[in-house]
């Protein structure tokens, strides 16, 4: 392929623009806040799962406490009713009175057992509630951090997006009037290698940074100025300048 030496030289300007575009896109895709946000979100999900389980435990214990209170109240009501019968002399037969008093004693012991169970449930409920409060405080803290990082990421991204739009806008005028076949070759290599053209500087390829051997330098030195030469090693278009060392 042949192309005007000036057009070949202009490839370096286009490549500089494309490299800046590639760099800005890479920065946008790898913002430092993104990794922190992903890490925080993963940690938050774990805490959220723990908080969900803790709420279930707390709610179950709250229901158990209400049932325990209801059971104690029901048994106390029964004891008070039977004690009232004794106090009012409603039972006069000695054996019936003895049985009733024994029953009241059993009910009183039952109340003690139920109260102990209620106390145990209350203690467990208190601990479960404290766990929920702690986990919800952690969630609130993570949410605050996420909001701060998301805002910072958006601000940083906005700056890169503005710069990317500006640099992308420079490409159109830069490629205007360039030979179509030269640009097609350049774009194809750029898609494969990341860069399509590189300056040959001091006998070194500016793309892969390898020094060309003497035989390849001799071939390039002998080539016509309008011949598009490529590095045998990496395949990039080599643009010759006064700094090429030919």
Task: Provide keyphrases for this structure.
246 residues, mainly alpha, Helix Hairpins, four-stranded mixed β-sheet, 4 strands, rod-shaped
Short description:
With 246 residues, this protein is mainly α. 76% of the residues lie in helices and 5% in strands. The protein starts with a helix and ends in a 6-residue tail after the last strand.
Classify the beta-strand content into a percent band: 5-15%
Note poorly predicted spans: none
What is the distance, rounded to the nearest whole angstrom, between the alpha carbons of the first and last residues? 21 Å
SSE topology string: HHHHEEHEE
Question: What is the annotated CATH architecture of the largest domain?
Answer: Orthogonal Bundle
Number of helices: 5
Arithmetic mean of pLDDT? 94
- As an assembly, this protein is single chain
Q: How many β-strands, per DSSP?
A: 4
Number of domains: 2
What CATH calls the topology of the largest domain is Helix Hairpins
Strand line-up in the sheet with most strands: 2-1-4-3
The main sheet comes to: 4 strands, mixed
Q: Under the CATH scheme, which class of the largest domain?
A: Mainly Alpha
What structural class results from the helix and strand content? mainly alpha
